[in-house]
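Exercise: predict the fold of this chain.
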Amino acid sequence: MSETTTDPGDGRGVLDTNAVVLLDRLDAADLPDRPTITTVTLAELSVGPLVTDDDQERAARQARLQAAEASFDPLPLDVAAARTFGRVAAGLRRAGRKPQARAFDALIAAIAIANELPLYTCNEGDFAGIPELRLRPIPHPDQN
């Protein structure tokens, strides 16, 4: 199981995509003082406006993407994160989990691990089986 910790001494932490989507509904006390995101989250958010037929939903998703682009300097999938992803995906495969089905989550986790930062998420179960990850669960606003 992933290690559950608080944020590092400097207050930095990576927000999972679900935390970015729910950001305006989350309690600031549950978030890092200095949040960041990954380029993988930007990629996930970029899909949203393109896959809905509802004009209002498309506009909301586009606004969320643009707000994330304007608010964060995302951590990249660099060489260290790519190598970390290899370890994460191999560990998931050995544990009987399908890393392909969780590729975005595994990439986000790898970037957080490579940057030695905790990951803040409302979906703790998405990161089960990644022991290197310092996970910081956030209460989901719809499950309180």
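Check your answer against the key: The two ends are 23 Å apart (CA to CA).
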